[in-house]
Amino acid sequence: MPISSSAPRAGVVIAAAGESRRMGGIDKVFSPLRGQPVLAWSVGAFHRLAEISSIALVLRADLIPQAQSLVRQRGWTKIAAIVPGGARRQDSVLAGLDALGACDIVLVHDGARPCVDAATILRGLDAVSRGGAAIAAVPAKNTIKVVDAQHRVIATPDRSTLWQVQTPQVFHYAILRAAYARAGADAHAGAGVTDDASLVEQAGHPVTVFMGSYRNIKVTTPEDLAIAEAFLGDGPQS
Question: Which tens digit of pLDDT belongs to each residue from 36-65?
Answer without folding.
Answer: 999 999 999 999 999 999 999 999 999 999
